[in-house]
Amino acid sequence: MSTPSGVTSRTRRPVDPSWPWVGAATLAWIAAYRTILPFWNWAIYDALGLDPASHWGQAAHFFFYDTTKILLLLGGIVFLVAVLRSFMSVARTRALLGGKREGVGNVLAAGLGVVTPFCSCSAVPAFIGFVTAGVPLGVTLSFLIASPMVDVVAVTLLYGLFGWRIAALYVVSGLVLATLAGFFLGRLKLERHVEGFVYAMQVGSGLSVDADAAPTWRERFAGGLDEVRTVVGKIWPYLLVGIGVGAAIHGWVPESFFVRIASPDNVFAVPMAVLLGIPLYGNVAGILPLVGALQAKDIAMGTLLAFMMAVVALSLPEMILLRQVLKPRLIAVVIAVVGGGILFTGYLFNAILG
After folding, report:
1. I need a surface site. Which of 44, 63, 177, 257 has the fewest CB within 10 A?
2. Is the whole model's pTM more than 0.85, yes or no?
3. With contact defined as beta carbons under 8 Å apart, do 55 and 252 qualify?
4. How many domains, the chain?
5. For residue 211, is it within any domain?
6. What is the largest CA-CA distance in the chain?
7. Could you read off the pLDDT of 228-248 as tens digits, one per residue?
């Protein structure tokens, strides 16, 4: 059939067949998340007949409810973030940050650190790639601080355990800390404390921006599912151990035990938490359920989050890896600056949250 004069024929793009499946899965996820609390109330207290006031009843409910809730949150949010991350790569991040002045660059780097795939094992190649691409040292450090600390797993668990207010405060404080710490470190002009081979490398060697065609929605969704399997498959043992320890504390350990050590009135509780967290390494999935149980024992939230931030932002394995490109004095300055910022954040949280 011929097209009428003056009318332009347009070829309609077929709807990607993966969209209906994603829509159905989203509805199923919402239904599951809304029903897990009444389900476990019935299963623990009615079907099993455990007393809600008993040690076993409290511990069992804490373990099963928190496990299913956190796994659902992780699956949904990791999938969503993975799809969003498919529009961003480390190479594109370098291109965006290259040539940016300090200040604006620190803010942009901290924000990009949240949405760009990054882990401790990629600290060294990321650092080399950024510096050789012309990204200032302070801006690079803002990215390296924000990326592991304001991690999607940490934010997801915070939201699941404490609600959106605590999660939002943590995200904002983490981004502010990464921005200000990177800016301050950049002002100190510490480039001489970077190992010489980093600057000797040819700029851009092996670090070209991805030139591949944009993935289709089916490929983005498939990548999201792969990310869910990878993340959940990697952290579920730590998650179960952390929730198990938290359940035991929630059910059996008396509040008086923790009040003597880290009550909201103890002015030294936050420094103790930071000093304990700096040399310690722990998976955030294992730490946060424990944090949730301790918070129920009347330990101040700022003290708990200061401990968690110190573990995540200043983990010993990451510092050891960064020693390949940073001299000891610069590593010590980074620990001191970020540790001081975490101290301030812990006291601020305690003041805001009472």
Report:
1. 257
2. no
3. yes
4. 1
5. no
6. 86
7. 887 778 767 777 776 777 677
